[in-house]
TrEMBL record:
The keyword Metal-binding applies. Keywords: Glycoprotein, Golgi apparatus, Manganese, Membrane, Metal-binding, Signal-anchor, Transferase, Transmembrane, Transmembrane helix. The keyword Disulfide bond does not apply. One of its GO terms (molecular function) is metal ion binding. The chain crosses the membrane at residues 12-29. One of its GO terms (biological process) is chondroitin sulfate proteoglycan biosynthetic process. SUPFAM superfamilies: Nucleotide-diphospho-sugar transferases. It is found in: Golgi apparatus membrane. PANTHER family: GALACTOSYLGALACTOSYLXYLOSYLPROTEIN 3-BETA-GLUCURONOSYLTRANSFERASE 3, GALACTOSYLGALACTOSYLXYLOSYLPROTEIN 3-BETA-GLUCURONOSYLTRANSFERASE BETA-1,3-GLUCURONYLTRANSFERASE. This is Galactosylgalactosylxylosylprotein 3-beta-glucuronosyltransferase. InterPro entries: Glyco_trans_43, Nucleotide-diphossugar_trans. Glycans are attached at N287. It comes from the Eukaryota.
């Protein structure tokens, strides 16, 4: 009798597994977006959980799909010869970050084909926005770079998008400003995942230094100053690439934005002061001893002649 019961149970189990597999395949094939795909997989896993009692590993997977915080990566970008090369490089860095959501804001009137195609080809989770820098704020060809704020309009547009589309308490994640011309080690994104409020780290090749970095008090391990090539006494002498913020803080402080009114070179410092104090910064990258991002700048190419038929 026992033997018969056992066989019956096994048959039932096999039947259940086959039905579930068919169901998963059907559901996955019939879903059209990545979000729909994940939610279908979750539903199917829940079905398993209900019928079969999931193993701890399966339970963990189910929980992880719900809980994994998203890194919202904000990239302002504008047209010039190197734009496609820059965006290709950073999109391929982001392909190594499973929980990245790439918010790309073009400095233009309308979304361009070049950027639309590039971000859709990347297969990343993306949001594509536009925000044009007003002509009077735009850097002229002969102006030195420090003369104008760059990326103000675009970063603010991305912040509004986050505030309009995400919900405090429900959506969990981090916000990082990833300029299109810097170079990034994927390890940086694992560091960002450790942030409670505001995390900071060194940035290579910036401000006339080989590296700019927060300086830690050897006793407390907290930030007590900065090594920076320019005004190290700023409240936060940190480059845009040198910090990331918990999404909750961005959503809680709706007024925290960038502004043309800020003193030149003070965008980062004034923006950070909405959220925290020097003492409360969280030093990452092995207590600010490792460099995972470089403030590189691509040389402007000299193009003497254009071969037609290519989008470079
Ligand atoms: N940027 C922009 N419009 C501009 C100039 C810059 O959208 O007119 C973007 C640029 O693509 C980059 C960010 O703003 O992602 C910062 O600009 P840049 O790298 O020139 O600044 P810097 O390295 O000098 O801080
Ligand atoms: Mn740059």
């Amino acid at each position: 009798m026992d033997h018969l019961e056992n066989r019956k149970f096994k048959k039932y189990l096999i039947y259940l597994i086959i039905v579930s597999c068919v169901l998963i395949t059907w559901k996955v094939l019939s879903s059209d977006s990545e979000e729909a795909y994940i939610s279908e997989v979750k539903e199917c896993l829940k079905l398993f959980q209900y019928k079969l009692q999931l193993t701890p590993l399966q339970n963990m997977l189910l929980k992880k799909l719900d809980d994994i915080p998203i890194i919202y990566v904000i990239t302002p970008t504008y047209y010039r010869y190197v734009q496609k090369a820059e965006l290709t490089r950073i999109s391929q860095t982001l392909m190594l970050v499973p929980n990245a959501h790439w918010v790309v804001i073009e400095d233009s009137e309308e979304r361009t084909k070049l950027v639309s195609n590039l971000i859709s080809d990347s297969g990343l989770k993306t949001t594509h926005l536009v925000a044009k820098t007003p002509p009077f704020e735009k850097l002229k060809a002969k102006d030195p770079r420090w003369k104008r704020h760059r990326g103000v309009e675009q970063r603010n547009k991305a912040l509004s998008w986050l505030r309009d589309n995400l919900q405090l308490g429900k959506d969990k994640g981090f916000v990082y400003f990833m300029d299109d011309d810097n170079a990034y080690n994927v390890k940086l994104f694992s560091e960002i995942m450790k942030i409670k409020k505001v995390g900071v780290w060194p940035v290579g090749l910036v401000g006339g230094f080989n590296v700019e970095t927060p300086v830690l008090d050897p006793g407390t391990g907290k930030v007590n100053g900065y090594k920076s090539g320019w005004k190290p006494n700023r409240p936060f002498a940190i480059d845009m690439a040198g910090f990331a913020i918990n999404l909750d803080l961005i959503l809680e402080n709706a007024k925290a934005n960038f502004s043309y009114k800020m003193e030149k070179g003070f965008q980062e410092s004034q923006f950070l002061s909405y959220f925290t104090t020097k003492e409360n910064l969280e030093p990452l990258a092995d207590n600010c001893t490792k460099v995972y991002v470089w403030h590189t700048r691509t040389e402007k190419p000299v193009v003497k002649s254009e071969v037609s038929g290519y989008e470079v």
